[in-house]
Amino acid sequence: MCMNFDTGRNPTDEEIREAERILKQRPIKQKDHPSAVAANHKKLSHINTYGDLPNFYLDQPFTCRQCGKREIWKAKDQKWYYEEAKGHIDARAVECHACRKAKKSSNSD
Question: Residue 33 falls within a domain, yes or no?
Fold first, then answer.
């Protein structure tokens, strides 16, 4: 059984441009975009910050600091990281999936 998961690991140039375009819009337009995922402030209670908590997450394009590959940190993955894994709200994706996987396997040796 083959499933196509939208992971952001191999985005097209068009997908990256669209994500960058949405990030430049005003928040009122961003929240209505189909890729926006609502944040649950109750699940963000572990975050002790003076700044505002997000009302929604958006796909975030990034360049891997190890290999230079472009990927997208998907909004649904951000929601999981911040709300379920209790990651710090200022954390950002900096390494692609392949580099993170290689680092994990070398650390386990």
Answer: yes
Q: What is the pLDDT of residues 49-86, one digit of tens each?
A: 777 889 999 999 999 999 999 999 999 999 999 999 99
Per the prediction, the chain carries an average pLDDT of: 89
With beta carbons less than 8 A apart as the criterion, state whether 66 and 85 touch.
no
Tokens coding 102? 């290689």
Domain of 102? 13-107
3-state secondary structure of 66: coil
- Domain membership flag for residue 5: no
Strand segments, DSSP code E, in 1-109 are: 37-38, 56-57, 60-63, 70-73
Q: Which residues contact 44 (CB under 8 A, 6 or more apart)?
A: 53, 54, 82, 83, 89
User: 6 lies in a domain?
Assistant: no
Q: State how many domains the chain has.
A: 1
C-alpha distance from residue 38 to each of 32, 53, 87 (Å): 10, 12, 17
1 located within any domain: no
